[in-house]
Amino acid sequence: MAFDIEMIKKVYGTMAERVDKARELVGRPLTLSEKILYSHLWEGNPTQAFSRGKDYVDFAPDRVACQDATAQMALLQFMHAGKKTVAVPTTVHCDHLIQAKVGATTDLAVANSQSKEVFDFLSSVSNKYGIGFWKPGSGIIHQIVLENYAFPGGMMIGTDSHTVNAGGLGMLAIGVGGADAVDVMSGMSWELKFPKLIGVKLTGKLNGWTAPKDVILKVADILTVKGGTGAIVEYFGEGATNMSCTGKGTICNMGAEIGATTSTFGYDDSMRRYLAATDRQDIVDAADKVADYLTGDAEVYANPEKYFDQVIEINLSELEPHINGPFTPDRGTPVSKMKAEAVANGWPLKIEWGLIGSCTNSSYEDMARAASIVEQAVAHGITPKAEFGINPGSEQIRYTIERDGIIATFEKMGTKVFTNACGPCIGQWDRAGADKQEKNTIVHSFNRNFSKRADGNPNTHAFVTSPEMVAALAISGDLTFNPITDFLINDNGEEVKLNPPHGDELPKRGFDVEDAGFQAPAVDGSNVQVAVSPTSDRLQLLAPFDAWDGKNITGAKLLIKAFGKCTTDHISMAGPWLRFRGHLDNISNNMLIGAVNAYNQEANKVKNQITGAYDAVPAVARAYKAAGVPSIVVGDHNYGEGSSREHAAMEPRFLGVKAVLVKSFARIHETNLKKQGMLALTFANEADYDKIQENDTINFLDLTEFAPGKPLSLEFVHADGSKDVILANHTYNDSQIGWYVAGSALNLIAAGKA
């Protein structure tokens, strides 16, 4: 039986009335995305049509999910809200704080010892406030959500950018910062600018070596890492219905890599099969009663150009396997062209590691198809040329693939089976030799491949591809290997051709597990004590940020002018820094240490205008803060791309940064800055980026007139006394300006004014 089935039935009970009313107001057929949006309005039944990309709208999500790294700060904030219990079903998942090194058993034991304080804190807070808690080793948040909580037509938010994975079951699942989650957990509305819509029509059928992963790798190549910003991507067509539910999840998962608000698919038989297989036939029974409301209207899919802001068409029958990278997930290369690309660009051809797993590709089907390649290699006497590791997506997946012999197949090739956790995908990988920073290549089935992300080595060229392609490439040890056309040489010197992968969509004997790792909360948590040691270096109770004093910011110093790509990994690194995610002071020591200074092209080396010396970014920020000098950060395009981590906004706020001025923002990061009481500004004229000099002092000229739609004027005073006045745009509405005035959105909640 499904979790929260009565809540799900309630959603379905109002859907028809709300969607019918929305269709009447909009005056045309509706996409699936619009049906879910209009059926989840905070006000209930819709009373007006909204403009895509313009109107801010209040929504009522059905549930919230948090992973352990971001849950710490989210729950520390929730403790300030003064609520006795969460207002909507909420879960916490311990998947980020487990490092991959030796293997599952040893690595999990080490994590349980090293992070015991954090896990105990999350367990007790969850127990107190009515939150479902998934223990370390239970699995990766998004796989567990897909297996247990996602449902067609629902809306959820999660404190991880890959919350969008639940779109594989027909949800609108959206990644947010912890402050947004606190709003919903506190029983308040959640605000989102009504998204634009991108339609992706899938024709034909996947075959041979091509996998669902190749669909999103192709879409990323088309749209780039910012092409989906402010939009929902909705997939439809015969190609969509011909695909497995977990394959759909993979595609939606990597929608985060194109900046999309979320991605989704219409309700179909693959979802029915998956729900039934995961013991949720009761959802199927309820969903079937409103099935027409759980997919786009037929007229929409027949004439998509009339209803979507942009339409992409992909013929799956002609789609080639893709290998995207290095250093960015949107650089797509079809396997047939990889040899020429790799040689021309000087990429290391020898593959050192192949890694399968992460929230993107860790399903039963993924593991089965990859194992079918490994099985062939073992049968033909081929010794793999690269090391190989897997992360099952959940304990249910791990237990089932062990029962069905899939793990044994992997182990015949010397594969390391890591914990059911994120591991190398988020930098939680103690890779031997990475500290030497040698130039090398790895291939993985993860979602992101930014510099240093997997192993901390800036010279690791990481390429993203499907699990089956990872297996083939790892076995060959050669980035230029094309399994469709090329042969391998076995240990006897014989030529061997790999057959295309195969694997069951769902286990023939059903899923099985002894202990899934779930801890239900206390019925009444009022007597549960949550203790945080004042001497802890892992956890720190939060103090509210100061409210705005109502005056113009003057005498501010330029902290850093970031050059080029500046993701949340650059602003607040993961990896070993994850251990400080619950301690704002300690985690702030990683603030912007990965960003490249435009003036010297070096990372973590900026000028302290007080002393004239160069120092680490956090050190300079702390010096300014101690001296009572405000500072600002300047950046390039798509600033804050990547994770939903709000630490990338909280750290600058904590260290005295007053504003971030960039050419453009990634959606989640812009919202996170606003929530924390920061000024998130964009250049009205992007060329003004070049006018900003290293020794500038900045004065705001009209912040006292801060208002929706009114640009702000900033005076940049250069070292020689000359000045440039730069116009900065913003997207603040009245309520968001209220967050700024109060010092943060949380301050309003705590004061009972939100």
UniProtKB/TrEMBL annotation:
<dbReference type="GO" id="GO:0006099">
    <property type="term" value="P:tricarboxylic acid cycle"/>
</dbReference>
<keyword id="KW-0408">Iron</keyword>
<dbReference type="InterPro" id="IPR015932">
    <property type="entry name" value="Aconitase_dom2"/>
</dbReference>
<dbReference type="GO" id="GO:0046872">
    <property type="term" value="F:metal ion binding"/>
</dbReference>
<dbReference type="GO" id="GO:0051539">
    <property type="term" value="F:4 iron, 4 sulfur cluster binding"/>
</dbReference>
<keyword id="KW-0411">Iron-sulfur</keyword>
<dbReference type="GO" id="GO:0003994">
    <property type="term" value="F:aconitate hydratase activity"/>
</dbReference>
<dbReference type="InterPro" id="IPR018136">
    <property type="entry name" value="Aconitase_4Fe-4S_BS"/>
</dbReference>
<comment type="similarity">
    <text>Belongs to the aconitase/IPM isomerase family.</text>
</comment>
<feature type="domain" description="Aconitase A/isopropylmalate dehydratase small subunit swivel">
    <location>
        <begin position="558"/>
        <end position="686"/>
    </location>
</feature>
<protein>
    <recommendedName>
        <fullName>Aconitate hydratase A</fullName>
        <ecNumber>4.2.1.3</ecNumber>
    </recommendedName>
</protein>
<dbReference type="InterPro" id="IPR015931">
    <property type="entry name" value="Acnase/IPM_dHydase_lsu_aba_1/3"/>
</dbReference>
<comment type="pathway">
    <text>Carbohydrate metabolism; tricarboxylic acid cycle; isocitrate from oxaloacetate: step 2/2.</text>
</comment>
<dbReference type="Pfam" id="PF00694">
    <property type="entry name" value="Aconitase_C"/>
</dbReference>
<dbReference type="InterPro" id="IPR036008">
    <property type="entry name" value="Aconitase_4Fe-4S_dom"/>
</dbReference>
<keyword id="KW-0456">Lyase</keyword>
<keyword id="KW-0479">Metal-binding</keyword>
<feature type="domain" description="Aconitase/3-isopropylmalate dehydratase large subunit alpha/beta/alpha">
    <location>
        <begin position="34"/>
        <end position="477"/>
    </location>
</feature>
<dbReference type="InterPro" id="IPR050926">
    <property type="entry name" value="Aconitase/IPM_isomerase"/>
</dbReference>
<dbReference type="InterPro" id="IPR015928">
    <property type="entry name" value="Aconitase/3IPM_dehydase_swvl"/>
</dbReference>
<dbReference type="InterPro" id="IPR001030">
    <property type="entry name" value="Acoase/IPM_deHydtase_lsu_aba"/>
</dbReference>
<dbReference type="GO" id="GO:0005829">
    <property type="term" value="C:cytosol"/>
</dbReference>
<dbReference type="InterPro" id="IPR006248">
    <property type="entry name" value="Aconitase_mito-like"/>
</dbReference>
<keyword id="KW-0816">Tricarboxylic acid cycle</keyword>
<dbReference type="Pfam" id="PF00330">
    <property type="entry name" value="Aconitase"/>
</dbReference>
<dbReference type="InterPro" id="IPR000573">
    <property type="entry name" value="AconitaseA/IPMdHydase_ssu_swvl"/>
</dbReference>
<keyword id="KW-0809">Transit peptide</keyword>
